[in-house]
Amino acid sequence: MVKRIGVLTSGGDAPGMNAAIRAVTRVATNIGLEVYGIYDGYRGMVDGKIKQLTRESVSDILDRGGTILGSARLPEFKDIEVRKKAIEQLDKFGIEAVVVIGGDGSYRGALALTDMGVNCIGLPGTIDNDIASTDETIGFSTALNTVVDAMDKLRDTSSSHHRCSVVEVMGNRCGDLALFSGLSSGAEIVITSETGFDESEVLDRLREFDVVKKKNHALVIISEKITDVEIFARKVSQFTGFSGRATILGHVQRGGSPTPGDRVLASRMGEKAVDLLMQGVGGQCVGIQRGEIVGVPIEEALNMPSKSRKDLQNLFDRLV
Ligand SMILES: Nc1ncnc2c1ncn2[C@@H]1O[C@H](COP(=O)(O)OP(=O)(O)O)[C@@H](O)[C@H]1O
Ligand SMILES: O=P(O)(O)OC[C@H]1O[C@](O)(COP(=O)(O)O)[C@@H](O)[C@@H]1O
Ligand SMILES: [Mg+2]
């Protein structure tokens, strides 16, 4: 049975990662395991930036955004020689298994390490909600709250000036932050990779909101990586009765104190990760499916088709 485990955070940080680190550390130390924090993701694993965590090291972090362990992106980790160096460091510290808190990229690293003999369990820490094996990722709820808070504020100023706010939100290729915030804030238009983007059709709809529906404002939420929102906002000014203003919410979406939902989710998932490692399981990732915490093989999780949001998109259309 494993006696010493490591924990790291990798990829973009997400609110609730600290709650997950705390849960892993507390659940594990309470059953007599030793826990080591690996700093700055896989980079710290390669460089041996590793330090023991005690129950005190994870005090007062449950409510903090970011990650006390730091995070990083290390593309070279795809190289087996680099991973061998990482495993040498793990051996040096006597770490037999690792909990990896991150997104799909981090899962690939975790699977590669498991294939090389170090059992790893992935926890879905990303604001993007882009992991198909879980109904929700750690950080999504907090980021969504941040976006909705911004949207509410933008509506105030937009309706005072007969403006159209074009708001770019994160999500990588996943439209969940855009669609869920659109539903929550009563936006006029949501554009995601699933809805597609037809510029002239969107401009037509905006003219209709102005001329036919006599709306004082319009909120357009658009997922990142679809179009240049500054240029699009200028076209709104040029071709509709609204004056267009672009807002790129950016990294503000990644920060802040996690919601209770994220704290509880992270705690439940952290517990499951330790349980799986204690059962000798590796190469799995933890998810929540219909309210139940489950372990899913990472390979399977990475190959699942992304969730379709057609139903929610239809609902959105019926609410405008
Ligand atoms: N195919 C892979 N093999 C090994 N490691 C990988 C692989 N893909 C990504 N990683 C590691 O995971 C890190 C985080 O991945 P990234 O996609 O940036 O973020 P996220 O995990 O949040 O999706 C990468 O910087 C790299 O170190
Ligand atoms: O922090 P960076 O390097 O600017 O990356 C931005 C990207 O990271 C994210 O915030 C989170 O993505 P990951 O969870 O995959 O790391 C994406 O929404 C965004 O596209
Ligand atoms: Mg990702």
Write up what this structure looks like:
- Keywords: Allosteric enzyme, ATP-binding, Cytoplasm, Glycolysis, Kinase, Magnesium, Metal-binding, Nucleotide-binding, Transferase.
- By secondary structure, this protein is α/β, with parallel strands linked by helices.
- It has 2 domains: 4-139 and 258-302, Rossmann fold (3-Layer(aba) Sandwich), CATH 3.40.50.450; 141-255, 3-Layer(aba) Sandwich (Rossmann fold).
- Helices cover 43% and strands 19% of the residues.
- It is built from 11 helices and 11 strands.
- It has helices at residues 17-30, 41-47, 80-93, 104-115, 140-160, 176-185, 199-211, 229-239, 260-278, 298-303, 310-319, and strands spanning 4-9, 34-38, 50-53, 97-102, 119-124, 163-169, 189-191, 218-223, 243-248, 284-289, 292-297.
- The strands form 2 sheets. It has a 7-stranded mixed β-sheet with strand order 3-2-1-4-5-10-11, sandwiched between helices. A 4-stranded parallel β-sheet has the order 7-8-6-9, with helices on both faces.
- Strand 1 (4-9), helix 1 and strand 2 (34-38) form a beta-alpha-beta unit.
- The longest helix is centred in the middle third of the chain and has 21 residues, at 140-160.
- The model has no long low-confidence stretch (mean pLDDT 98).
- The structure holds adenosine-5'-diphosphate, 1,6-di-O-phosphono-beta-D-fructofuranose and magnesium ion.
Summarize the structure.
With 320 residues, the chain is an alpha/beta fold.
How are the elements arranged and paired?
Blueprint lengths: L3 E6 L7 H14 L3 E5 L2 H7 L2 E4 L26 H14 L3 E6 L1 H12 L3 E6 L15 H21 L2 E7 L6 H10 L3 E3 L7 H13 L6 E6 L5 H11 L3 E6 L11 H19 L5 E6 L2 E6 H6 L6 H10 L1
Parallel strand pairs: 1-2, 1-4, 4-5, 5-10, 6-8, 6-9, 7-8
Antiparallel strand pairs: 2-3, 10-11
Bound molecules: adenosine-5'-diphosphate (ADP), 1,6-di-O-phosphono-beta-D-fructofuranose and magnesium ion.
The site of magnesium ion has 7 residues, from helix 4.
